[in-house]
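Lecture notes, continued. The same structure-token format from the folding unit now serves as the input rather than the output. Read the line below as a description of shape only.
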């Protein structure tokens, strides 16, 4: 087959059969068996970038980042187009997982993204200043998934800014590596929409524990005061009674409304997925706008052990007639 004067070989029937079978096995979680078939396919058609792209994809699923980087580099070496190829995005994810910053910069630039910093020092430093804004990330996408809000550090990492529920095993302030293809989005009435990326793995842990506490907050303003107090101290508080909603997986992976914000930060609502529809409307937001205010609130706090009780006591002392707390417990 000749395209614009260049010979391009069609993949053989054996290559297609091995590749199709491998992706069926990947869907069943049989990565070792899929690896053997994709390696066979690469041996059959080593000049096809798709052979190495598929292997890089499999190694990404397995979190084998050295192999993902190696296969990804072989894939991009065979590319015919210059920018926008998903092969480069996978190389960027693998490089970020390995903290191979020169390769990560090269991958994002080859994909077509602008990476600030042109000096020799910047070229070997962790990419920063890409100003990618907010996004949502789905923690534990294969298990008891939860969508939380965060700040995009670069195309493959999000810093969590919600306080995740303890079932996720994640904390406020942690950085997670995420995939490049969004599964769903969160929209606002004013127009902006935010992609929902799937977590791949924890990239940087947070030393700040998660606490749950029961509040008696007479008004929303009392609740808001605790959130401001925690933020002013450099940590976070979140009223889980109103910020967490239950969604089925289908709804979670579709386009769902989010609260209005300024487009730079979002902290709620975040979504806890369920295998089936939890109610007749398909999703539920307890304590949402327009609901009657209930003074007892379940609140998540992200703060060091030596500070958390002081924050709560200070919050109460500012308005003792309308505020109380009890049953503080570290949960993650």
């Amino acid at each position: 087959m000749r395209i614009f004067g260049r010979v391009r070989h069609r993949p053989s029937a054996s290559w297609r059969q091995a590749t199709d079978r491998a992706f069926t096995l990947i869907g069943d979680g049989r990565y070792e068996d899929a690896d053997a078939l994709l390696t066979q396919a690469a041996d059959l058609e080593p000049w096809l970038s798709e052979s190495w792209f598929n292997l890089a994809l499999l190694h990404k699923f397995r979190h084998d980042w050295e192999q993902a980087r190696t296969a990804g580099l072989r894939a991009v070496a065979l590319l015919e187009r210059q920018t926008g190829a998903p092969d480069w995005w996978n190389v960027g994810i693998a490089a970020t997982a390995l903290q191979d910053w020169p390769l990560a910069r090269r991958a994002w630039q080859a994909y077509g993204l602008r990476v600030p910093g042109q000096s020799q020092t910047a070229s070997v430093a962790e990419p920063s200043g890409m100003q990618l804004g907010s996004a949502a990330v789905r923690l534990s996408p294969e298990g008891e998934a939860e969508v939380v809000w965060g700040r995009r550090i670069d195309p493959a990492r999000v810093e969590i800014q919600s306080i995740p529920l303890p079932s996720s095993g994640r904390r406020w302030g942690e950085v997670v590596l995420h995939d490049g293809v969004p599964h769903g989005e969160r929209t606002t009435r004013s127009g902006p929409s935010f992609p929902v990326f799937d977590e791949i793995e924890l990239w940087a842990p947070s030393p700040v524990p998660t606490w749950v506490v029961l509040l008696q907050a007479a008004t929303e303003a009392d609740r808001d005061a605790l959130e401001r107090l925690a933020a002013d101290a450099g940590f976070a508080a979140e009223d889980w009674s109103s910020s967490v909603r239950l969604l089925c997986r289908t709804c979670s992976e579709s386009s769902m409304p989010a609260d209005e914000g300024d487009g730079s930060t979002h902290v709620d609502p975040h979504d806890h997925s369920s295998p089936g529809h939890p109610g007749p409307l398909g999703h539920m937001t307890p304590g949402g706008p327009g609901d009657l205010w209930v003074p007892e609130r379940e609140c998540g706090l992200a703060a060091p052990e030596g500070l958390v009780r002081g924050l709560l006591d200070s919050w109460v002392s500012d308005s003792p007639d309308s505020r109380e707390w009890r049953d503080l417990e570290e949960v993650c």
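Point for the exam: The radius of gyration is 23 Å.
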